[in-house]
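Sample pair:
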Amino acid sequence: MKEWGTKPEFDFKPKNHYEIAEIHDWIDKERAAKVSGARFAYLKGDLVRLQFALISWVMDTLSDETVLKSIINEHKLSITSKPFTPVLPPHMIRTAPYEAMDRLEPSEDRYKIEGEDLWLQ
């Protein structure tokens, strides 16, 4: 692990991530609990935008060979600089590949399209 800079000292008690999000109406645990049960939360507004910005930054970074080479060199890593290729697979899959992945059983817990050789992922 590595630390950067000096840890700041505050003249107040810092808030945790949930307290900050609640103040800004970026999170809603109560409504999510009504829909999904305890321990779930709706993310809202700028917090959702932040999450998508982070996803976008990671995708840009991992798919740029020049950036990867720079990171690898800077940290003296012995890994490939081959860029990541994002893939969104189909939401349905035929029986044979599903069985080959050993993910079909128990089949009663899966959703099959009636009259088709297709299962929802």
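The mean pLDDT is 91.
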